[in-house]
Specification:
6 helices; globular; 2 domains; alpha+beta
Length: about 210
């Protein structure tokens, strides 16, 4: 797929633990939505990022880790590519993980000073895992980390035990609702899927390693 005059530079960043029995061929097929979007004919060809200082897409067969720090030019249609990629990775993942995706507005220059036009940047968090429980565990851990980090400015860590307990209760209720809905054969009420998105705020810098 070729992209000309694309409105975004899209950065995909994350690390996923993959099952030990997964082959390179399986990983290449799972990531096909990404490298095909970049116009490549294989994972090896499409693994390089648009920026030389980014590692790109790397699958380590020894440690069974998929690491992504990869930028591609694209449009909003890349969101469908992300959906396909997440479904494929779910089939191969050994544990839950979060993948961060940032859409940088290429028409916005934040170095040119104040402007009447706001940046069209967007930031999306995707959660993948072998099952809903693994995905929820990652979501829970990330939320606890964020909440504790924020509240530690005002409270001692020992005072936040009750807050963490309440967060755990919320996720337990959500998981129980999911299990119940699956037993009844209907969609889960209140289960948000793999996506969590946020828009606005300051410009998020690219990940550099």
């Amino acid at each position: 797929m070729s992209h000309y005059n694309t409105p975004f530079e899209i950065h995909v960043h994350g690390q996923v633990s993959i099952r030990a029995d997964v082959s390179f061929a399986q990983m290449q097929e799972a990531l096909k939505p990404l490298w095909r979007y970049a116009g490549a004919r294989s994972l090896s060809e499409g693994a390089s990022s648009a920026y030389e200082d980014e590692p790109g897409i790397q699958f380590d067969m020894q440690t069974h880790l998929l690491q992504m720090c990869w930028t591609v030019a694209g449009d909003d249609d890349f969101r469908q590519t992300l959906d396909e990629m997440c479904m494929n990775i779910n089939e191969l993942a050994d544990a839950g993980a979060v993948i961060e995706v940032t859409f940088y507005d290429t028409d916005f220059d934040d170095e040119s000073g104040p402007s009447e036009d706001e940046s069209g940047d967007d930031f999306v968090m995707l959660f993948v895992g072998p099952n809903p429980a693994a995905i929820m565990q990652v979501q829970r851990d990330l939320l606890v980390q964020d909440v504790v980090s924020l509240m530690e400015r005002h409270f001692d860590e020992t005072e936040l035990v009750g807050v963490v307990t309440e967060i755990d209760k919320l996720f337990t209720q959500r998981f129980d609702a999911l299990v119940s809905s699956l037993e009844l054969g209907k969609p889960a009420s209140g289960f948000g899927g793999n996506h969590g998105a946020g828009h606005g705020g300051g410009r998020k810098p690219r990940h550099l390693h």
